[in-house]
Design brief:
It contains eleven helices and 17 strands. Helices cover 32% and strands 25% of the residues.
Amino acid sequence: MHQHPALYALVLAGGSGTRLWPLSQPHSPKQLLALTDPERSMLRLTVDRLAPLVPPERVIVLTAADHVAQVRAQLPEVPARQVLGEPAPLGTAAALGLGVAWLRAQDPEAVMVVLSADHQIAPAEALQADLGQAAALARSGWLATIGIPPTAPETGFGYIELGEPIAAAEGGDGQCRRVLRFVEKPDPARAVAFLAGGRHLWNAGIFAWTVPVIGAAFAAHLPRLAAQLDALTAAAAAGDAAFAAALPAVWRTIEDRTTIDYGIMERAQRVACVPAGFEWLDIGSWAAVMDTLPADEAGNAVLGRYLGLDSSANLIFAPGGRLVATIGLQGMIVVDTPEALLICPVDRAQEVKRLVDALRSGGDGG
């Protein structure tokens, strides 16, 4: 028997992954690809990691409407009706709201944990323990988040500033802390200070809350969106066909295109943080993929067939089976796919997004 209220997981599998071009394409976004494991996609790995804590019948996956069929095929054990297709991306507040609205019609007292399908996390047991602790805080009325102890002065992430410890009577375990504030992506000097000070964790976008508490937060902080989500809950309560018909109609009217952090978490009062006991990597770029793959003695991270002479510290990603050979190559990314070949320095991996933007605006030279 599970504790009542029951624990559900909402897995966000929507992003486009433009920094992982050319492997990640609109028809095959990064979360559906095997990037960090030769056999299993990032989405598959995410659901597998949850398994002992949240069985597949209580997993909800939110993806783009165009990818619903692919997600259902990858996760045959998750009930098909629990793969929800977002008609268009409107920001994470609307996305999470959609998951909350649907779940409220099924189990109005449910506890929900939220996590993304494009994170590399290990060991799974530590994630399960931390999610269990976040769920305990949620049951005590907190909006809970899991923060990642920073390992570098990273300027690409948001941070969480920690306050007082939370007492056991309020769901704490000695490690959990009240959140003082969320801090936007810092400049390098502030990032160095955050790392040294020990009071800031990376915001990984992993949350836990009960449906009533997050529902009240939407009503308080995003009342227009909350009313639209109420309409979706009513449709979901009327059945799958009614929900499928209502979703695109309601979605077209949503104006609050914001993030859950800015729209709710930064404004809410009772926000708690569990410091993560697991290793975490946001697979947002080829440099991050490089960090997940084992490296050979010359520091080359390789997936596929590779022969290198006098070559070191490269990422060679060639899942198609074609041999990639290099001579005298250092610190480069080589991604070989049937659709395109990408070559760039490791330290310019973030700029792949600019390349994709240029492609989409019609130029493929220059």
